[in-house]
From TrEMBL:
Pfam families xref list: Acetyltransf_1
InterPro entries noted in UniProt: Acyl_CoA_acyltransferase, Bact_Acetyltransf, GNAT_dom
Taxonomy, superkingdom: Bacteria
Protein name: GNAT family N-acetyltransferase
Length: 150
């Protein structure tokens, strides 16, 4: 049948929080996040009108997720989208699922009037394949992203 991509709804909070938990565990080398806190945060984020999620399904089984935030900046020409989370289950990787999610995100952004999509990729060289994936899918590396926790 193939991959079907649909919008995330409020009833998808369990799979969204599970997939983001898996993503965080991979990015941190196995540190498992607090599942209860993650689910509560997912409920709050999914209720935010500036956040959109797209879920990839293979025969009705969730296999991938991309979460988008609407941002605005003068340098970006106005409103744009930011990919905050992108996760594909390990058995579905290298099968085009992530590329389909990025393409669906770009199509959503175009319909919404965004000027661009941005993403913060993990550090290189450890996550070199991730950066190369985004480059193959039309992204250009413009420098590191920094953060300050408050």
């Amino acid at each position: 049948m193939g991959i079907v991509i649909r919008d995330v709804g409020s009833d998808d909070v369990e799979i969204v929080s599970t997939f983001v938990g898996y993503l965080l565990a991979e990015l941190t080398g196995g540190d498992a996040p607090n599942v209860v806190a993650l689910k509560q945060t997912a409920l709050e984020v999914l209720a935010n009108n500036s956040v959109t999620g797209l879920l990839a399904l293979n025969e009705e089984t969730p296999v991938g997720l991309i979460m988008l935030n609407e941002c605005a900046a003068i340098y970006a020409g106005g409103r744009f989208g930011e990919i905050s989370e992108l996760y594909v289950s390990p058995q579905q990787r290298s099968h085009g699922v992530a590329a389909q999610l990025v393409a669906a995100a770009a199509a959503y952004g175009q319909r919404t009037g965004w000027q661009r999509l941005e993403v913060g990729a993990p550090t290189q060289p450890e996550w070199k394949r991730t950066v190369e994936f985004y480059e193959r899918n039309g992204f250009a590396e413009v420098g590191p992203r920094l953060r300050r926790l408050i």
